[in-house]
Amino acid sequence: MNDKYENAPKLLKDYLVYLQLVKNRSELTVLNYYTDLRSFFRYYKIRNGRASNDPDEFKNISITDITEEDIKSVDLMIAQDFLIFTKSEKDNHPQARYRKGVALRQFFKYLTNNKGLFEVSPLANLELPSPKPALPKYLTLDESVEMLRNVNTPDQKRDYCIITFFLNCGVRLSELVGINVSDIRKSRESSGREVWTLKVLGKGSKERIVYLNDACVNAYLDYIDPAETDNEKRSAAGDRDMTAKTDALFLSRRNTRISNRRVQQIVEECLRSCGLDNRGLSVHKLRHTAATLMYQNGVDVRVLKEILGHENLNTTQIYTHISNEQMETAMNKNPLSDLTNNKKKE
Questions:
Q1: Which of 116, 28, 126 is nearest to 71 (CA)?
Q2: Strand, coil or helix: 276
Q3: Which residue among 97, 285, 305, 310 is the active-site one?
Q4: Is 72 considered catalytic here?
Q5: Average pLDDT over every residue of 70-84
Q6: Which of 287, 288, 295, 305 is labelled catalytic?
């Protein structure tokens, strides 16, 4: 268990272990649950006069001394007051307050069903904020082409391959960093056609297969010496030591797996190179771009769901909303859109 949780009370530690080992949640998801529940128990201590209500001291409030009796005393009212507190005092936006509410409900559901602390969860009826889903930002086709044309970094072949995989495969940052050379396979169909596939390890350690198009294959072969694509040896695009001790596809200059932060820096640098650095774009927006471009060009939303590794179709359908918004915008740009009948009957 992560050392970050060592100051959590026992029941909360048990829950975090349950999330990680039984529910197979990612480390980031577990950390988010811990952070949200820690905020609640800090507020709980303030409400009960056991901690200072000085805003500057909030992050220093320890929850180590939260007992089972404290947890049993939690009711719907204090949970609702906590969500009000996160809005009025912490200025949390609706999505953040929604997440905190979900964390509370799920934790007390666990305490009820798995630990038997309650006959019925006291927070079962906790009402959550209903945030308006924000449409994701993304690059247009022309902007995507411009970005690929402006990969002028020192490790150009590697970084071009990274941007290509983001814009074509729609992979998440953690998924891209985790790609191994052995995850990329070339096979031949009975018709004789070559097929390249990428095994992606997604959220919850769920694997999925993504088929690589020509752009991805070409970028990959340009980065990796074609003579070494038998997945037994590894080339560093001709400018690094070929004896890397890792199977990682994307390497740092130290021949170790590239870090999340380094990939973010590469994307930021490429966005600056083509004048797109003032749009609030990020690595995750490249995933949105891939999904949007595929949907706009006829990919069925159910197929898109599998490519992106979404668990629920509802998550994928946000890209259909983008298309609807674009159609509405197009209609409003018609030069006749604001004309009215000037011959109304008197």
A1: 116
A2: coil
A3: 310
A4: no
A5: 96
A6: 287
Determine the Cα–Cα distance for residues 137 and 339; give it in Å rounded to an integer.
32
The number of residues making up the chain comes to 346
Convert the pLDDT of each residue in 86-135 to its tens digit: 999 999 988 899 999 999 999 999 999 999 999 999 999 999 887 666 66
Render the burial of 290-323: b for 16+ CB within 10 Å, e for the rest: bbbbbbeeeeebeebbebbbbeeeeebebbeebe
Alpha helices in 89-155 (DSSP H): 94-113, 141-149
Q: pTM of this prediction? A: 0.63
Whether residue 319 lies in the annotated active site: yes
Of the chain, the end-to-end C-alpha distance in Å amounts to: 78
Cα distances from 4 to residues 1, 97, 222, 259, 314, in angstroms, run 8, 22, 41, 21, 33
- Strands, E, within 170-319: which ranges? 184-188, 194-201, 207-211
Q: Dmax of the chain from CA atoms?
A: 87
Q: Choosing from 42, 45, 172, 257, which is the catalytic residue? A: 172
Q: Computed from CA positions of residues 20, 25, 26, 29, in that sequence, does the dihedral angle turn out positive or negative?
A: negative
Distance of alpha carbon 344 from alpha carbon 346, whole angstroms: 6
Catalytic residue among 87, 105, 203, 262: 203
The catalytic residue among 137, 199, 233, 284 is 284
| Cα–Cα dist 219/286, whole Å | 17
The encoded tokens of residue 39 equal: 């905020």
Question: Any residues with CB less than 8 A from the CB of 54 and at least 6 apart, and which?
Answer: none
Q: Are strands 184-188 and 207-211 parallel, antiparallel or unpaired?
A: unpaired
172 catalytic? Reply is yes
**28/34 Cα distance (integer angstroms):** 10
Contact in structure between 24 and 202 (CB atoms under 8 Å): no
- The amino acid that residue 164 corresponds to is T
pLDDT(346) > 80: no
Is residue 310 part of the annotated active site? The answer reads: yes
By C-alpha distance, which of 269, 268, 286, 272 is closest to 154?
A: 269
